[in-house]
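Put briefly, the fold is written as integer tokens. The lines below illustrate.
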Amino acid sequence: MSDSVIIIGITLVYLVMVLVVGLRARGQSSSSLEGYVAGGRHVGVVILFFILGAEIFSAFAFLGTPGWAYKHGAPAFYILAYLSLVPITIWALGPRVAKLGRERGYLTQGDMIADHYRSKPLGMLAGIIGVVALVPYLTIQIAGAGLLFQAATNGMVPFWLGGLLAFVVVAAYVFCSGLSGIGWTNLVQGVMMIAIAWFLGLAISERLYGGVGEMFIQIQQQAPEYLTMPGATGMGWGYFSTAVLVSAFGGAMWPHLFMKFYSADSGKTLRKISVFYPLYAYLLVPLLFIGFAGILAFADTPLERADTVLLKMVMDVANFSPWVVGLMLSGALAAAMSTGANLAHTAAIVLVRDVMGPTVMKNASEKTTVSVTRWSVLGLSLAAYLIALFNPGSLVMILLTAYGVIIQLFPMMIGALFMPQLRRASVMAGTLVGSLAFLLMEFVWSSPLGWHAGVWAMLFNVAAVAAWQRLGHASHDGHRVPNTSSH
């Protein structure tokens, strides 16, 4: 039996197991809109902990994180820096969002925004931005799955087929089970990916260098530029710091994370999760070890694509058995699939409820809405798959670009939650100005001072909100302070 056959066999068994778990999680609640979207609003600490963990740790974690450590060195620690701030946003925003969602029946960001500002167009704008940011994020997961299959099987399973296999499984259980299927599969896959990451990180360091400490000593002696800022590729403190800010505050604005606040059984559950959340972030530490291990291993023959460093280390350098490679592939696919499930689920809900709901589906019944949402899961997954076939660039850079778009919702959401004096015209102007500024700096002009373009765009956003507030103060636009009654 060839090594590739063993690897494929282990992986297919894993995919079948995930599919069975996801389909068995389907309950009666999955047939209602609230059940399909928010799990009936009674998701507890353990399941929600793994759901929120899987929101962050994806193909980006297993491929992009070691890729950045290998390519840049010390600047890769921006990932740990921003993750240390994520619990603050969960603690500050989560309980209030959950309370408002329970009282007023909110299921998406657009629901909250449209109701608070009395503006359906504003809710639609939030929905459009959400979908535009989510599809590239979903593309990352599909591209990651394709890369994993292709490398781990020496091309026996090509890129296009690997991505397709993983996301047929994801689309199937998300289509049938909604958030319930996502929750139980994320529990299984979360345990899997944490165990595999730590095993590989420690085993590779031990095999190649005699341990983690010895590895860093050798890097310090032979390639010290990788252990200091601005790193081997000259990434300055400006980009490092602004990437941390964009990722930390933009993370709270991702619809797939924000909407899970609605599913919590209480605000206390979310505060418990914010306390324990850093435990999940330890998953990234061994993945960083793998990236650093590749610096000296490939010093003479640099990799053409940094995102493949984990695969190359496992396949070509550390000489693991095909059984270990199969488990590695399963663990990495767990990261891609768990996040991909959340993204496909959320993008479909946002598209149907926030964008199509006020327009082409204005008078649709709940049954019709659930049905269209299920089919939108398949449609958006297919769109992301087709984009992935173009073999996009660095997974980390794709993600940072998506963060720059989604963070433009921040002033709008802060106004809805904590600053009722902000008017709808002000936040709409700010969001449009910020989004346009980001796209221009990202794709037309270079960002000043080498900062992440998302920070400059956010400054333009806030400036536009402040200017509009001041100019429009005399002509009040009818904005209200939300009442406290429930729907």
Summary: Residues 109 and 255 are 7 Å apart (CA to CA). The chain has a mean pLDDT of 83. The two ends are 62 Å apart (CA to CA). Residues 159-209 form the longest helix (51 residues).
